[in-house]
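Suppose you are handed a protein chain with no further information: no name, no annotation, nothing but its sequence. What can you learn? This example shows the usual starting point.
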Amino acid sequence: MAKPFVSVLIDTYNHEKFIEKAITSVLEQDFPASDYEVLVVDDGSTDRTPELVKKFAPRVTYLPKQNGGQASAFNFGIPRCRGEIVTFLDGDDWWEPNKLATVISAFEYHPEIGTIGHGLYEVDESGKRLYSNIPARVYSCRLDTREEALAFAGLLSFLGTSRLAVRRSVLDRVLPVSETLLADLSLAAVAVAVSGAIILDQPLTNYRLHSANVYQFAEYDVVRMRQKLAGFQSFIHSLPRRLAEWNVPAEVAEVLLYATRIDAERLQLALGQGWPWDSVRVERAAMRQAYKDSSFGYRVFHAAVLAVAAVTPPKLFYRLRHWYSARGIARVRDRVGAPVPRDSLVIRKPQGR
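A reasonable first move is to predict its three-dimensional structure. Written in structure tokens, the prediction is:
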């Protein structure tokens, strides 16, 4: 049986520092060059991204458009893909050499499944590996019940842009992608509802954390915090409606959005919208959502944190929390007994330490 033809869709915006690495990682795949195409949707870059992408012609097709965000880049680029399977890559990330071969083999082995994701390496701006983040095993997911949604919620990060691959027949059914800053996760959730997903237990993508990333930034940046909050809010608003179109129960959508709601509330509080008792409520909810058990020492530590939250204006409390996390002081809490995660879906290991 002939292998399916594959489209690699790279979305980029002002990635002049990273785009060549992303494209090269695709062109150097352990996969026949005749079996895939590469398309780069440039979402209105104002730096040198266009000239850098054009250097790869004719092997790479350059598709410029006006700036409109990731959802508009997907809606612009997907209809131009010729492949039976479409794989996605952000212009600031890159793939491992066996990415395509591994993912396409999984599609062939699971013809009933329409969506595939996998683990990742987290890397810093220079490309140094910080963590490997992988599922504890291979998972199969659908969204038929609340129980399945509980499992999928813990796997959603493995279906972000640079980990996502979807059959074109599924994409044709779910387009257009919702106009939200979390377009990749919205697309993934709807695709899984339509076709199911397999999550592979291998890190096949390098996910770059850098200063221009709206969702992963080290400094306490109020402008980007507002952008991130807007992204969360649009995702919370749009996802239930999109899932309802495919008869997904409302309780399933609520499970998927629970962690995002907590993150959105934390951002609102960090921006000064709320009261100390709101901080206590949100931090208690976050604890219950993330962990199923903890040592006596950790419970004492968490109680102390809640006590500080109860008497500190939220804006100041979350600035202190950010300072604490950014300096790695969180490792100190583990000396009193690390909490036990609510599930064992994810294994996150430091690299080179």
